[in-house]
Amino acid sequence: MDALEKPKLLKMKFPDELNNEHFIKAWDEWLQYRKEIKKPLTQLSRNMKLKKLAQRPLIAVETIYNSIANGWQGLFP
Known about the structure:
- With 77 residues, the protein is an all-alpha fold.
- 57% of the residues lie in helices and 0% in strands.
- It contains four helices and no strands.
- Helix 2 packs parallel to helix 4 (60-69).
- The longest helix is centred in the middle third of the chain and has 16 residues, at 21-36.
């Protein structure tokens, strides 16, 4: 994570269920991945994905890494 990006990430509001170091790191990597494949997320899309991930917080980090590893544009468990 770039030092310039870190303050932006810290300002993001995460649902309480996802507001932990492991999830925030995975989320940052997800955003970086989306940027690299030239498919950045809109703010609305980010918010909706966070809401959906908050419904299953125990597998949220695994879902993100699984989606990156498989080269998917969306988040799938």
